[in-house]
């Protein structure tokens, strides 16, 4: 799950074979995330939320491509995160993801996008905002979204290293990134973890 170009060079494999195997590993990571992921945050925990745009800006003809909006969150205390492709940034869409991915009792920090206004009326969450046009950190409450901004940077950098992501494969790429973040947060060996996940996804045949 490194760059396609690196694998082609170091393993002397052709492009299509490398892409196929990268996609196989994305499937393994996606299966792991779908199997084990639970809601993040909870009482006495803080989750930062934000949206960002992902896409290759141009195709091989130079034509501008449509962008995909991703909504994400990260827990400051555990470093657990979620990343979800969303069709828009309306209050209904974002609140649905928040309730599905964040535990009640969580303190949520965001920018001042109007769609987050519903959080102030939801008794299940405490909500603080920061006005990025004025400060990176709110001078009164200390609210900031630096953790989620850092997460976007890591995610997009890795995406570029892998030559960008085709729209049809974006969900599986995001699952791989979340899997890596989960493994890092748990402080376990990623190589041993991926071997375990491969065995779960493709269990050995009983005939062997």
Automatic annotation (TrEMBL):
Q: Which InterPro entries match?
A: IS1016-like_transposase, Tnp_ISXO2-like
ISXO2-like transposase domain mapped to chain residues: 39-182
Q: Which Pfam families match?
A: DDE_Tnp_IS1595 (PF12762)
Superkingdom is Eukaryota
Q: Which PANTHER family match?
A: DDE_TNP_IS1595 DOMAIN-CONTAINING PROTEIN (PTHR47163), SI:DKEY-17M8.2 (PTHR47163:SF2)
What NCBIfam families would the database entry show? transpos_IS1595
Q: Report the protein name in the record.
A: ISXO2-like transposase domain-containing protein
State the organism of origin.
Answer: Lygus hesperus (Western plant bug)
């Amino acid at each position: 799950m490194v760059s396609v170009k690196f694998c082609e060079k170091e393993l002397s494999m052709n492009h299509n074979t490398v892409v196929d195997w990268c996609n196989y590993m994305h499937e393994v990571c996606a299966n792991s995330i779908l199997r084990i992921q639970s809601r993040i945050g909870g009482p006495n925990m803080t989750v930062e939320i934000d949206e960002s745009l992902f896409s290759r800006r141009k195709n091989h003809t130079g034509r501008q491509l449509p962008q995909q909006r991703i909504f994400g969150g990260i827990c400051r205390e555990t470093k657990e995160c979620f990343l979800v492709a969303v069709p828009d940034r309306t209050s209904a869409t974002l609140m649905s993801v928040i309730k599905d991915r964040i535990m009640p009792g969580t303190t949520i920090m965001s920018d001042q996008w109007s769609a987050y206004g519903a959080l102030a009326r939801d008794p299940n969450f405490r909500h603080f905002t920061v006005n990025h046009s004025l400060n990176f950190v709110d001078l009164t409450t200390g609210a900031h979204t630096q953790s989620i901004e850092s997460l976007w940077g890591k995610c997009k950098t890795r995406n570029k290293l892998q030559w960008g992501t085709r729209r049809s494969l974006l969900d599986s790429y995001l699952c791989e990134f979340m899997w890596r973040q989960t493994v890092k947060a748990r402080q376990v060996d990623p190589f041993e973890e991926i071997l375990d996940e491969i065995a779960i996804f493709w269990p050995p045949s009983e005939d062997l």
